[in-house]
Design brief:
mainly alpha
Length: 160
């Protein structure tokens, strides 16, 4: 793979791993503490979010291995982007039921309390979706450029 692609994709993958583990940690903390009964949310929703977040972190770590084929990984990135949009929607809907004020007021993410932690999960879910989209776009651009170079080489091949 081209070195410019690797320079761009490695920070994206590290961000994807960090964001996925942050969301999984916040959701897992509430599942572990048994607070889900107080939050009036179905437990299967939290289990699905935590499972998909860990799957996303594993998939992103797999993407750091240079052996993975770029064209196959574009399909995986598309699925992961859609997955994070769904997770964002589930978290966004859930936080809306907590009466935490505006869901877009993320200035108090570091404040103690459940509203700020759930808003942080929503924010990191959105960031993860954005990073998966950026890595997908970077991969598609790279595949397109490599196919153009290969086609140019076959068309302009010098005779022996």
């Amino acid at each position: 793979m081209p070195s410019a692609y690797r320079i761009v994709i490695i920070p994206l993958r590290i961000g994807q791993i960090a964001f996925a583990l942050t969301v999984a940690g916040i959701v897992g903390k509430y599942m572990h503490d048994g607070v889900t009964g107080d939050l009036n949310a179905p437990i299967f929703q939290f289990i699905a979010i935590a499972t998909l977040a860990f799957l996303s972190a594993f998939t992103s770590a797999l993407g750091l291995v240079p052996i993975v084929t770029r064209t196959i990984y574009c399909v995986i990135e598309t699925v992961m982007f859609i997955e994070w949009i769904v997770i964002f929607g589930l978290l966004f809907h859930f936080v809306g039921t907590l009466n935490c004020g505006s869901l877009w007021a993320w200035g108090d993410l570091t404040a103690p309390g459940q509203c700020s932690q759930w808003k942080a999960a929503v924010a990191f879910g959105l960031l993860s979706a954005a990073f998966w989209f950026l890595s997908l776009a970077t991969g598609l651009i790279t595949v397109h450029r490599l196919s153009n170079i290969k086609n140019w080489y076959h068309v302009n091949k010098l005779p022996k």
